[in-house]
Amino acid sequence: MQVSEAVARRKSVRAFLDDRVAAERLAPLIESAGRAASGGNLQPWHVTLLTDGGMERFRAMMSARIASGRVDSPDYPLYHSPLAEPYRSRRFDVGEAKNARRGFPREDKAKRLDWFARNYRFFDAPAGLFLSVERDMGAAQWTDLGGFLATLMLLIVEDGLASCPQEAWVVHHRAVADFIDMPDSQMLFCGLAIGHPDPNAEVNGLETARAPVEEWLKTLSE
């Protein structure tokens, strides 16, 4: 598979088959993603992989936490507030597109909340990981995390699997940190659900729109 094909195929999958994905299959992909570029070769990423019994124990912990209604104050804001255009509309539009694929109206708050809670089961994926960074790292190192994550997601596509990056874990970062024994010196960036996509799940048919290149590319040739 060419890199361009992996880029074209990659998308956020939110429904997975329960087919097992072993840590031994994923570890080489994660190691390869470590070749991603990083400023000064700092390689600021820290990764914790969950599979099999580890994933089962984690889901049981999160199920109890969700039932209790506990949440954490985010360590970082997911979006600038207020969002200016066109970013506000892009966020709204993709939310509406996901709602349409889920088969219930946006006004059905109970079903929306139930669906959103599936984030905290890794969308029932058989494997998942958490990506963290030292708290004293700056914005430049956070861009390195994005490069690592993008590289890993393309390698996952090449391997015949799918993934979904999840910043939603920001409101449960303390529970995650306790479970994975993350040092206090680190902070959670995101999770990544990994597995075989469910071909019959309507939500997996979503292809998010992209802005025309003319909106964001400037070329200076002279």
Care to give the gist of this entry?
With 222 residues, the chain is of the alpha+beta class. The chain contains seven helices and four strands, in the order ααβαααβαβαβ. The chain has helices at residues 3-9, 23-33, 52-68, 87-102, 109-117, 139-158, 173-180; strands at 46-51, 127-134, 162-166, 186-195.
Structural class computed from helices and strand pairing: alpha+beta
Which stretches are poorly predicted, pLDDT < 50 over at least 5 residues?
none
Count all strands and give the number.
4
Fourth-tier CATH superfamily name = NADH Oxidase
Topology as H/E string? Answer: HHEHHHEHEHE
CATH topology: NADH Oxidase
Shape: globular
Task: Let me know the average pLDDT.
Answer: 92
Main β-sheet description: 4 strands, antiparallel
Strand content: 5-15%
Query: What integer value in Å does the Rg equal?
Result: 18 Å
Strand arrangement across the biggest beta sheet: 1-2-4-3
Number of domains: 1
What is the CATH C level class, in words? Alpha Beta
Percent in helix:
25-40%
CATH architecture verdict: 3-Layer(aba) Sandwich
Distance between the termini: 36 Å
Number of H- or I-type helical stretches: 7
